[in-house]
């Protein structure tokens, strides 16, 4: 029986794992190399206020560097682990645990492919990885080249362009850029609803890509701005950046193709253009994924990714007493996904959820890999994509907390509307089953009140609530403008084609 659990990392995934272990009556010990105890406890208290109260644990080992996690000699019988750490005084400590949850994330090992940039050794300025970036203080009056157009590259280009003389944003393949503030001035992830998920299941992906791309290009033409990528919109998680188009429009950020070579202080791009007198190059070139503190035979390799059952459990262990939480990418926030993973793991550790055989788990992992490669543009640096709603519901089904839409439709229609049409939030998985919270229903009904509250610094009348429209279909259309506008355009286009065909026949 698992009782003592090591949680490696005190970020969002680590905090949710601690809470899930406490909820199941286990004793977690958290190891964190950088934070102070006060910061960890503050984070835990903030986490608990969003769901349900839990007394914060006292067993933290902050400023502890994980050196090694290895099997105990009797692992085949006990499934226990030995965790070797180094404390802030440089002393080695050894701990024995019944299970281990790794929450160290996937942004720890920068990918710095200097060999792909001929002449980098001749560069006369400074270069660094985005992992080392702390702010634009050292970029005042400088000429900066940012290589890579992921979220980090876009943010660094925007922030540095406010103080730098000139910023060049180099991209090999381009990117679709969406706004964090979407229609009606609300967060873009409010579109992570079950209704939208159903649309993605029943409509052709080529149509959805066309609709979405049309909506984005209506705000600013990605081709004109030099941003248009080679891939379709929903083949890769887009870049979220509200300010990048304005910085490009002002000329403070110049979008360039991939770097061909570097000659001293000159950067040459693939199209033959150059950036002269460059002072600083920032490589926003992603991260490598690794768990150097784990035994080499723990991880199962599947395609470009670390193969994990349900993206959490290594499928090759004799005892399922090791889990990786937070090791995913999706179009939703990491916090609720990490919480769901942690709840799943804690149920497995306590024996409430029985896993299939190793062979069955490996088969499921390979199926997941094929689905990822089919639905997304996958590379060595981006192998972890999952669909937010589908993944949350899949884990919730295994835990026994997925809300029954059919039951809600007949027994609580007002709640059904909010669960089906509204954003998928963690509250929905506290309505029933293990970990049920009596305040979940009220929290769902009032979640938009909390969203609007910080904005109501000047009262100007009633705000249109998402669920108070008299007709459901009009609610959908009024709050999914991109679908309405794009479908209207499609109907108009079809009408024009019909008219042209009719006129041709008449002639």
Automatic annotation (TrEMBL):
Subcellular localization is given as:
Endoplasmic reticulum membrane
- Which keywords are on file for this protein? Endoplasmic reticulum, FAD, Flavoprotein, Membrane, Monooxygenase, NADP, Oxidoreductase, Transmembrane, Transmembrane helix
Q: What is the E.C. number? A: 1.-.-.-
Give the function comment from the record: Broad spectrum monooxygenase that catalyzes the oxygenation of a wide variety of nitrogen- and sulfur-containing compounds including xenobiotics. Catalyzes the S-oxygenation of hypotaurine to produce taurine, an organic osmolyte involved in cell volume regulation as well as a variety of cytoprotective and developmental processes.
Q: Report what the protein is called.
A: Flavin-containing monooxygenase
Cofactor(s) annotated in UniProt: FAD
This protein's membrane topology, according to the annotation, is: Single-pass membrane protein
Domain of life according to the entry = Eukaryota
The similarity comment for this entry is: Belongs to the FMO family.
Q: Which one Pfam family would you cite for this protein? A: FMO-like
